[in-house]
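[Automated response] Your request has been received and processed.

Submitted sequence:
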Amino acid sequence: MPIFTSSDGTKLAHHEQGGGEPLVVLPGGPMRASSYLGDLGGLHTRRRLVRLDLRGTGESEVPADPATYRCDRLVDDVEALRERLGLDRMDLLAHSAGGSLAMLYAARHPHRVRRLVLVAANPWALGTPATPERRRAAALLRAAEPWFPEAYRAFDAWLTGAGDAGPDIAPFFYGRWDEAARLHDARGDEEFNDAAAGVYGSEGAFDPPATRAALARLTAPVLVLAGERDGAPDPDLARATAEVFPHGELAVQPGGGHFPWLDDPEWFTERVGAFLDRADAAGPVSRAADRTPS
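Generated structure:
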């Protein structure tokens, strides 16, 4: 497990899997240890995954200043990792809340990003986070499943602030609520830094107009991948995110949830791998979602 030192002296860890060209991977949560990402459905067979444990998570050190958990301040850690790896430009993949960190990084260091993949990214950095209405609409897609009635009551209570994000709502974050999903969900509590999560998106973390303006000049190709059954983001919100980028494209994974590499590893790996391997720059975002049959 390699350790490097960020700009403020905090020691950070990253984990490597696979071979070939590196792909730097930023976890979500926010502030969840990168271990939940695993090998991203086998993507390590196509790229050398370099998973960063954000400060205060996983094997990385707790910083002296808790204010450095704020998303905009974590950009310096991503840049320190790039320097550690000796990359002039890097391919970058970010999941969920990590998508906002990746967007802030791309806005501040556009010439350091070769390709960007945003997986199930809730776009706080753009000022357009998923709304309760979008989340409910996605949840209702699961109405025929046997666990739905009890889970939806808990889910609605969470959205209205009358309940916590407990285990009862977990099925809505997976495209299939099977044994693999249950095992993945069960490990979550030990991977989160809840105190850091409260700082991640705190006041001052995001400046959506400035970020949008900077990303509108980004020359790197960008893939925005959403699960068909996810509500944060749903496919429509993911499309709006893709349209922010001059060379953005949208992929909607059939039957996918918030962790799409678990729902259909082969589809996920092929779609992301093909994007990363492509030699030509992406064109403008397509007006039709990519719904390759499963």
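Summary generated for your ticket: The CA atoms of residues 239 and 287 lie 8 Å apart. Residues 3-132+192-277 form a domain with the Rossmann fold fold (CATH 3.40.50.1820).
If you did not submit this request, please reply to this message.
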